[in-house]
Amino acid sequence: MELKMPKLELPKVKTEILVCKEIEAGVRTIFTVIRISILATDDGNILGSWLMPQAFLIIEPGEQYAVSISGEQMSIEKILELAPSLKEVIEKARGIHRIKVD
């Protein structure tokens, strides 16, 4: 009699970097960048998920900068590596803060 081992399938982890809805604080616009990970089976059953804040993107008139959750300054280039979709957000925010000259 031959024993057959059942096929063991390990759950998969899917991770994405997302940009949350902006927060207006005076003349500043603040975006939170988060990493979301989902643990799921091959048939789509979700076993768990977790969110990890990564950084804040802060845009104010004439300046934009990023701060990591650990409090360290972060270059715009570094935050764009994490979340390329922020490029469009930065361009839009720069347009909002442009001074129009007639």
Helix segment tally = 2
**Beta fraction:** over 45%
Count of separate structural domains? 1
Strand-pairing-aware structural class: alpha+beta
| Mean of pLDDT | 80
Distance between the termini: 90 Å
Helix proportion: 10-25%
| Largest beta-sheet characterization | 6 strands, antiparallel
Shape: elongated
Question: Are there runs of 5+ residues with pLDDT below 50, and where?
Answer: 97-102
Order of helices and strands: EEEEEEHH
Verbal overview:
With 102 residues, this protein is α+β, with helices and mostly antiparallel strands. The protein has one domain (12-96). It is 18% helix and 46% strand. Strands 1, 2, 3, 4, 5 and 6 form a six-stranded antiparallel sheet that branches. Strand 5 and strand 6 (73-74) form a beta hairpin.
Present the secondary structure layout.
Blueprint: E1 12-19, E2 23-25, E3 28-40, E4 46-60, E5 63-68, E6 73-74, H1 76-82, H2 86-96
Antiparallel strand pairs: 1-3, 2-3, 3-4, 4-5, 5-6
